[in-house]
Amino acid sequence: MAKSKVYRLGDLQLRIMQILWQRAEAAVVEVHQALAGEGDWAYTTIATMLRKMEARGLVRHRLHERKFLYRPGVQAEEVTRKISTHFIDRLFEGSLADMIAHLLTTRQISREELTRLKALIAERKKKL
After folding, report:
1. Residue ranges per domain, the chain?
2. Alpha-carbon gap, residue 2 to 96, rounded angstroms
3. Angstrom distance (rounded) from CA 72 to CA 41
4. For the segment 23-80, what is each residue's pLDDT rounded down to a tens digit?
């Protein structure tokens, strides 16, 4: 059986993907401007990163008025699903219950979040 592709994204790559998912399409200069204040990223660094991400199939480009416009090559839901599945498999041996227990004991949670979690669990139970 073929192994499912796992997306390994560094912090900068993830931020670039988030920008492209929000905008649907952007030139290098627009991505660079959107990252202003998040780090001292050079324009050339962003351009190079986008080319590398394109080589991996994460983004695509088209030429418009002498500039490349980049767009996501993968959907946010697919990346989120594969990264979270990989994370749970590696750190919690595939146990969603163990991951939730860990998060509930190591992070602050509001009453509203607990209520939301209860509702999500109840909804999931209906589908079983």
Report:
1. 11-72, 76-127
2. 23
3. 20
4. 999 999 999 999 998 888 999 999 999 999 999 999 999 999 999 999 999 999 999 9
Residue type, 32: H
CB 41 within 8 A of CB 29: no
Tell me which residue of 77, 55, 72, 79 sits closest to 5, measured CA to CA: 79
Whether 59 and 18 have beta carbons less than 8 Å apart is answered as no
Tell whether pTM > 0.70: yes
For 2, 106, 119, 123, the CA distances from 103, given in Å and listed in that order, are: 31, 5, 18, 21
Q: The domain 11-72: what is its CATH number?
A: 1.10.10.10
